[in-house]
Design a protein that fits this description.
elongated, mainly alpha
Length: about 200
């Protein structure tokens, strides 16, 4: 794909002639032959990546793997000069977003669930302290596991960190504020501390 992009102008007549001679039959007649070839290659790569991802036991890591690769392919495709392939670029962008949401749900919903359904105040302090402890334990477990996971693209890494922070920190901050008078133990994490920790993940 990178080769075809770097040699685009010289490859157009070659692939077009191959198509006219029947040596290459484009799957799509709605775009120029070279663009069709690129789309077919992208589809093949995506299929192989999806098959490869099945080998990951950790489902969060599986979707991060798919996200990393789909994002890389998407960035290569957006530079192609023909606007007629933009529908395929849009579809791939949708997959990038879908993979990201799946990753966020699998990784960060478990710790967040400890705070989203808090015990009513009249149930007592013990239950609220237990919810806080569970969140701290779950957050630390996910953070420790994923701190060394790798996201190569700086923009994607920044986007992921921001998405996680926006998912976790407002809920945690509100919980600490709402129940500060009945939480006995001192919270292990301040909101800013969580923010700083999240800026360290995905460096590999």
């Amino acid at each position: 794909i990178m080769f075809l992009r770097s040699r685009y102008s010289s490859m157009v007549p070659i692939v077009s002639q191959a198509s006219r001679l029947g040596k290459y039959v484009p799957q799509s007649r709605q775009v120029p032959p070279l663009i069709s070839l690129v789309i077919e290659m992208v589809s093949s790569v995506q299929e192989k990546l999806a098959n490869k991802s099945e080998s990951f036991q950790d489902q969060a890591l599986r979707f991060l793997f798919l996200l990393n690769n789909a994002n890389m392919i998407w960035k290569y495709l957006i530079d192609y000069p023909f606007p007629s392939h933009q529908v395929h670029v849009t579809v791939l962008a949708g997959k990038v977003e879908s993979y990201m949401q799946s990753y966020l749900q699998l990784s960060w919903a478990p710790p967040l669930s400890c705070l989203l359904n808090p015990t009513p105040i009249f149930f007592g302090r013990k239950r609220h302290n237990s919810s806080l402890s569970k969140f701290e334990s779950e957050f630390k477990k996910v953070y420790t596991t994923q701190k060394l996971w790798k996201v190569l693209d700086p923009e994607l890494r920044k986007m992921l960190r921001k998405a996680i922070a926006e998912k976790i920190i407002p809920v945690y901050t509100k919980y600490i504020k709402d129940y500060k008078f009945i939480i006995i133990t001192t919270p292990k994490f301040r909101p800013q501390m969580l923010e700083d920790m999240l800026q360290e993940i995905f460096e590999g």
